[in-house]
Amino acid sequence: MYEQASHALLNEILTELKPEIGKMRLRHFYTRLGANFYAIHSLFHLLYGNRPDFKAQMVSLVETLAFRYIERLPHLRRSDLEREINYNWFLSQKWVGMALYCDRFAADLKGLRTRLPYLQELGVNMLHIMPILDCPADNSDGGYAVRDFLKVDARFGTNEDVEALASTLKKREMLLVLDVVVNHTSNEHEWAVKARQGDKKYQDYFHMFDDRETPDLYEETMPEIFPATSPGNFTWDEAMGKWVMTVFNSYQWDLNYRNPAVLIEMIDIILFWANKGADILRLDAVAFLWKKIGSTCQNEREAHLLLQLMKDCCQVTAPGVLFIAEAIVAPSEIAKYFGEDAINAKECEIAYNATLMALLWDAVATKNARLLNQGIKNLPEKIERATWLNYVRCHDDIGLGFDDSDVQRAGYEPAKHRHFLLEYFTGKFPGSLARGLPFGENTRTGDARISGSLASLVGLEAALESGDEAAIGAAINTILLLHGMILSFGGIPLLYYGDAIGMLNNLEYLADPNHRLDTRWAHRSRFDWSKADKRHKKGTVEFRIFSELKKMIALRKETPAFADFDNRQLLAVENQNLLAFIRTDPQNSRNKVLVVGNFSVEAQMLQISSLRSFGLFQQDSMRNICTGAPVTVEKDAIIVPALCCYWLTD
Ligand code: GLC
Ligand code: GLC
């Protein structure tokens, strides 16, 4: 939109830029700055307009964008232009992601390059490397307590290694996803160190208070994120004699985005990694960016404004780069991270589908799809040019973040049901083979979340110990069923590194004093390459999981109906053990795929009479995409085997 005041300001700013910027030929930069400036200016003004240094801060922001544009290499600029033309590129079904720890999957970044054939064998072409930036060795929160945002940790290699990896990935047509931890720094970060030394400029980068008065006000409404290991949201710093806001661990200092300098630094960091060749940046803990007394300090409107600003700025300098929102929040809040009241995504193009993840786990425990159906029905509408990251497991715990009214509509009492799920996944519920571990237990509220590897949570560990073949088969089928769902739901499936070979919990973390109290490390073990070798040996558990997943991934990529263009229709089915939806090819609406998941341990019937009106079952059978075999209608129904995911087409 053209707006006089903002255009006049832009002209003024352009004359004030450092001379070296003025001399450069920056055609695309200026076009994009012109196109985005109204939005950038309005948002920046909403957040910081009352400051006397507002204009100076605006100049500094524009300079940051210009310098990072000047630095952006020709091949990345070319990719920006290509992606601007083909702007829906990431909605294609051809993308399949995996998240892994560089040092746990390979030794370091160089080693990781030699391990790429494993990912390609499986069909993975989007690689999320868990955080690799410089962190203190002891207090690192798995890489999320960053000491230097611009430097790779020496344990993993160098910045050059990242660039080399990015270029190898590009040749292999794979995408690189890196983290930017936008919400906090390590207490050893230079900004924190200077703040501690009394530097007022850097004290203003954080939230700090001389006494308990303000912290106590905040605490009235702020929940605790790590209540077991790091209770409360503030930490006393002896050196400064101040309370510092530390929402996560006591060594992770929350950044103060009321200070525009912090936002500009962070945009600079985002663009720095965009320039190192990242295709997608995962913005960590975005729900927490804005703190306000009297609120939970999550999902605040200003947090959304900050993300819009980050996006608009990235659009100017590195428009080909996408953002993933890591906001593991209530179902009604998550979709807002695509941008509210927008047609196209204007914050993050991709968001973790934590709702689907938690609902799938509910179906695993209850062995029915009641809550799953209910929750998906209420999954917020997604705007255009936005997509989900669908996952079963990740490096974090599983939170039971369902909507209470959905839980009630599914016929459960919320508190009791959550208690049941905790008992089930920690193996206390009679008959449960799950080997999960509690995480983040809050003795005050009774809340807890669940850690554990996929295989251990679905009972594979217990089944292997007892040698019960039927139980082993059921666990493997559950793993495949869950992946069948995330591969077909619509969005980018994100696998977790040990899951394709059925890696179990590993309790070595108990011997590490830095990890001992954090059960998430049970599912962050070293990738077992000798176990991975068994994926080629027929009959092994590894073979049974890996080869099936590999096939499903290949078939997903060949099935245009699995691209994500608002082309999923949930079906109301009578049988509550089943989840059924139709995916329609966005290019050709006659091509449909019926996806049916049976979460029960018994075979189930799906009545098909009502499905004919959707253009399904025009003949008396449909083809199972995964096996090629027909699935035949008998007495107006088909039989879906226990713990099975069908992808059916005409
Ligand atoms: C994110 C990360 C999690 C980390 C937290 C604090 O939620 O996924 O692992 O502990 O942020 O940085
Ligand atoms: C290779 C293979 C893997 C093997 C490993 C040995 O990357 O993919 O199967 O176990 O190297 O170090």
Write the layout of secondary structure elements.
Blueprint lengths: L3 H13 L2 H4 L4 H22 L5 H18 L2 H12 L11 E4 L1 H4 L3 H14 L3 E4 L3 E2 L13 E5 L6 H13 L3 E6 L3 E3 L3 H7 L3 H4 L4 E2 L3 H7 L14 E4 L4 E4 L6 E3 L5 H16 L4 E4 L17 H17 L4 E4 L5 H4 L15 E3 L1 H13 L3 H8 L9 E5 L12 H6 L4 H12 L11 E3 L9 E3 L2 H4 L2 H7 L2 H20 L3 E5 L32 H5 L7 H18 L9 E3 L7 E7 L7 E7 L5 E4 L13 E4 L5 E3 L4 E4 L3 E6 L1
Parallel strand pairs: 1-2, 1-17, 2-5, 5-11, 11-12, 12-13, 13-14, 14-17
Antiparallel strand pairs: 3-4, 6-10, 7-9, 8-9, 15-16, 18-19, 19-20, 20-25, 21-24, 22-23, 22-25
Short account of what is shown:
With 650 residues, this protein is an alpha/beta fold. It is 38% helix and 16% strand. The chain binds alpha-D-glucopyranose (GLC) (2 copies).
* Bound compounds: alpha-D-glucopyranose
Q: How many β strands by DSSP?
A: 25
Low-confidence stretches: none
Shape: globular
Main sheet record: 8 strands, parallel, barrel
CATH architecture call of the domain at 566-649: Sandwich
Question: How would you portray this structure in words?
Answer:
With 650 residues, this protein is an alpha/beta fold. Among the domains are: 184-254, Oligo-1,6-glucosidase, Domain 2 (Oligo-1,6-glucosidase, domain 2), CATH 3.90.400; 566-649, Golgi alpha-mannosidase II (Immunoglobulin-like, Sandwich). The chain is built from 23 helices and 25 strands. The strands form 7 sheets. It has an 8-stranded parallel beta barrel, surrounded by 4 helices. A 6-stranded antiparallel beta sheet has the order 18-19-20-25-22-23. It has a 3-stranded antiparallel beta sheet with strand order 7-9-8, with helices on one face. Helix 3 runs antiparallel to helix 13. The chain is globular. It starts with a helix and ends with a strand. 50% of the residues are buried.
